[in-house]
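Posting for a labmate who doesn't have an account.
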Amino acid sequence: MIQRDGLTRYTLTLLAVMLTITAMYFGRDLIVIGMFSGILTFLLLPLARGVERWTPRWVGALVATLTVVVIVLGLFFFMGWQFSRFGKDLPLLQESVSKKGIEVQRWVEAHTHFSRREQVQWFNEHLADITNWGGKAAMRIFTFTGSALTAMVPIPIFIFLLLLLRDRFRTFFTKLGRTSDGAVLDVMVRISELSRKYLRGILTGMLIFGILASTGFLFLGLKYAVLLGFVIAFLNIIPYIGALVGALLPVFLALITKDSTLYAVGALAVCLVVQFLDNNFITPKVVGSSVSINPLASLAALLGFGALWGVAGMLLAIPITGMLKVVCDSVPSLEPWGCLLGEEIETPKEKRLRIRFKRKSVQPPKSS
């Protein structure tokens, strides 16, 4: 009987997980829009409340919504201006790539048994595959960009309505009542605070990261230093993968625009130094422990949500996992899962040592 109950529970749990993943995949557009809208609403909530002290509710919601719209449009205009400069210099970059390619061919011919004719023949044989791969990659980029711009259109409307009708959501969560597993409204308040702190920290960290990287590239004399710095800062939001991809861009640009490989080494050094500062000083101080997720859970969430929702899933993976941890920590029956998602647990021995060290550090000095 016990085995049958266990098998039934396992079957129902597996079925629920499969249905949830299926719904998340086929409803990804609406879910992604809702998640971005909700996180931005949590961030803008203090601004809306501040305006509402002297104005009606709808004015505060409108001011907060227009604020995020103006900021996003400003970022798009700035990045568009930078990319337009890049587009004007594209023929020169292509010529530089051709010259560097000839130098590489000469180096390969001098250090290996492959002549330049054999290298050209090998390249022509694989040119079709490279072109096909590049075309698919470009198509994916343009498709994602178009989809992202289309998906961003209803987000301000969602933000405005969420801010305007937030009391109804509070009443809804309150009427769900306090169950044996905790209060639903308390959980939502904690999720709101977590999302606000995380997003504010991420935006601040991205701004600092972009300024430091741009300053380093300007010092090296690289072209498009500001564009590179903030593109790398944006990619750095994606854990593990973003930092690696971002470091390749300035190194490649330095190789094709500068005569010495020392510039590429310098660009790599700038990326490593800024990444070190971000990991050890900027992120701990700015973001803090708002999302206490261990590296294994972060990587699993990154791969899982990336497979479900693409780039948008990678951006939302960490905050969604942090929200899940808040729910698990608040519900007694789900506490083991919260422990699995959380950071390293302090052992009893480490706790005793920490308390002992703290007592010694605060012990008053002996009088002479």
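Reply:
Got it, the structure tokens are right above this. Residues 26-164 form one domain.
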